[in-house]
């Protein structure tokens, strides 16, 4: 398996193993945990700066969201600039706005310096309103962009066959192939003497005065500094309250007419749809994304694909859906990412998360911020993205309440499980959390009747997992940990599997 889901993403074919036999007994300058765009970009920057780095990945490079992204590179974000100005003030909103082109430049420089062939292309983006409410939103977005010096121009036509009310173009955006890109970064990192260790899960850390000791599935690893590029680091921290896991869905289609839009597109529906194209094996495909929801809060995740496909078919002359996949991102409570010193750390451990749908940009800018913090001790972004900040903006209480649903979800799921009295109620091909002899279990029955039974309580914060029919996984609605049908961990923050239960019915 190369990705944290049962479905194949359009990028996955390019994933390859980087299984160096690392010397884990060396004392490293920096151990970077997480082999997605954030971890790899950061490890490379630090290695370039003369640090001796090791990159640790629980599965394989590209296993996480970077293998399931859609890889638009934008300098306008899910958090609008007017929102940023009203919550953080003009100066901080300006810095926030500057990260977009700075990150795209870092990507372009890496591509040029290391000769990475990753289908990078500069693109124009079209942002379009479909009704009056969205028109108002679009006006607000354009006004906010002007205040931070970003150009958005009203246009009468868009290259997407979707009826719209108002639209703007945004110049100088881009797209690339995310796995080809991070593969190129890994090769550059290795060529500079960096070390990659895959199949190495980091389970915890002990921060000492002069170093950090990492507890990993391959034993103890010591480094002067540690960077967690794993979304939320292992263990419990304030980041669990200030970030919430969401899933988003993508499908890659061929079109009968062959008339593919050349640019990037976004409507303003909540959640919004996003569009780009990608050539794979000589064939152009339209990638459409959307249908986002909080992890574990959608009864039938397969429905999300149906809704997305039906929506796209309404407007485009779809021929075939070649790939469909979903993946997970984190929403921050106040709209800004959390990049910097890990809350509670005395200064040797760093983290980067809360990227919303803009993780290609914030993952890349993290490499600059974190290497500046480690190498020089400061960064111009240090204060605005400080992971320890608690910013009680409008909606904060609701967000925290919604996110602190540990107890609520636990009780609700227990009640739900109470209603199910026996395993017999689960049909072939179905999955449920069931009550069996007084205990709660996550049960999946294959279409041939084979039963997979695991304990249903997530080891992280004791929430009850929920079934994700689209990716055949058990997802924790509280903090986003995910497990396969055998209870094997797919996505943290937990570092433990769901205990598997041997039953007589298992081999039925
Ligand atoms: C469907 C979808 C579409 C998106 N589209 C866009 C887009 O168009 N543009 C954009 O800018 N952003 C987009 N995003 C967001 C973006 O893809 C992500 O924010 C970004 O990929 C996150 O990268 P990362 O390196 O931080 O995390 P990941 O890529 O998830 O990497 C984290 C890695 O850490 C590893 N790991 C976790 N825990 C441990 C541990 N304890 N020990 C060792 N390793 C561990 C995981 O296995 C994983 O490989 C999208 C997100 C989704 C879900």
From TrEMBL:
Gene3D superfamilies xref list: D-Amino Acid Oxidase, subunit A, domain 2, FAD/NAD(P)-binding domain, Rieske [2Fe-2S] iron-sulphur domain
InterPro entries the record matches: FAD-dep_OxRdtase, FAD/NAD-bd_sf, Rieske_2Fe-2S, Rieske_2Fe-2S_sf
Top-level taxonomic group: Bacteria
Domain Rieske: 418-508
A molecular function (GO) term: 2 iron, 2 sulfur cluster binding
GO CC annotation terms, alphabetical: cytoplasm
Keywords: 2Fe-2S, Iron, Iron-sulfur, Metal-binding
Pfam families documented for this protein: DAO (PF01266), Rieske (PF00355)
Name under which the protein is recorded: Rieske domain-containing protein
């Amino acid at each position: 398996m190369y990705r944290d889901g049962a479905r194949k993403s359009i990028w996955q074919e390019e994933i390859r193993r980087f299984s160096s036999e690392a010397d884990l007994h060396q004392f490293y300058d920096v151990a970077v945990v997480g082999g997605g765009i954030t971890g790899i970009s950061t490890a490379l920057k630090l290695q370039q700066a003369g640090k001796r780095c090791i990159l640790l990945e629980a599965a394989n490079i590209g296993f996480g969201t970077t293998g399931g992204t859609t890889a638009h590179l934008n300098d306008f974000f899910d958090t609008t600039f007017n929102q940023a100005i009203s919550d953080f003030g003009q100066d901080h909103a300006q810095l926030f706005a500057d990260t977009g082109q700075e990150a795209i430049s870092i990507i372009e420089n890496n591509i040029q310096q290391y000769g990475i062939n990753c289908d990078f292309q500069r693109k124009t983006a079209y942002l379009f309103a479909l009704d009056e409410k969205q028109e108002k939103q679009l006006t607000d977005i354009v006004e906010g962009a002007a205040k931070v010096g970003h150009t958005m121009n009203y246009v009468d036509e868009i290259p997407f066959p979707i009826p719209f009310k108002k639209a703007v173009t945004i110049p100088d955006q881009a797209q690339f192939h995310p796995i080809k890109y991070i593969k190129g970064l890994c090769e550059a990192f290795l060529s500079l003497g960096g070390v990659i260790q895959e199949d190495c899960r980091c389970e915890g850390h002990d921060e000492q005065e002069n170093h950090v000791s990492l507890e990993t599935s391959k034993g103890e690893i010591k480094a002067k500094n540690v960077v967690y590029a794993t979304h939320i680091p292992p263990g419990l921290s304030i980041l669990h309250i200030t970030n919430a896991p969401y899933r988003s869905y993508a499908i890659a289609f061929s079109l009968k007419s062959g008339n593919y839009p050349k640019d990037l597109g976004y409507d303003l529906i909540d959640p919004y749809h996003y569009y780009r194209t990608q050539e794979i094996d000589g064939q152009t495909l339209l990638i459409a994304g959307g249908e986002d929801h909080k992890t574990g809060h959608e009864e039938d995740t397969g429905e999300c694909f149906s809704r997305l496909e039906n929506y796209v078919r309404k407007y485009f002359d779809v021929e075939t859906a070649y790939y469909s996949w979903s993946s997970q991102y984190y929403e921050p409570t106040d709209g800004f990412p959390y990049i910097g010193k890990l809350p509670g750390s005395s200064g040797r451990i760093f983290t980067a998360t809360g990227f919303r749908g803009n993780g290609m940009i914030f993952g890349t800018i993290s490499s600059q911020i974190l290497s500046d913090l480690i190498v020089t001790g400061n960064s111009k972004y240090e204060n605005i993205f400080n992971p320890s900040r608690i910013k009680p903006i409008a909606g904060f209480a609701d967000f925290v309440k919604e996110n602190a649903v540990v107890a609520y979800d636990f009780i609700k799921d227990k009640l739900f499980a109470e209603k199910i009295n026996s395993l017999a109620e689960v049909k072939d091909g179905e999955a449920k959390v069931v009550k069996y002899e007084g205990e709660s279990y996550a049960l999946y029955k294959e279409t041939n009747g084979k039963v997979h039974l695991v304990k249903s309580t997530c080891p992280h914060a004791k929430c009850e997992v929920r079934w994700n029919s689209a990716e055949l996984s058990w997802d924790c609605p509280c903090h986003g940990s995910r497990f396969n049908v055998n209870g094997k961990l797919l996505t943290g923050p937990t570092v433990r599997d769901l205990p598997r239960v041997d039953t007589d019915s298992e081999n039925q």
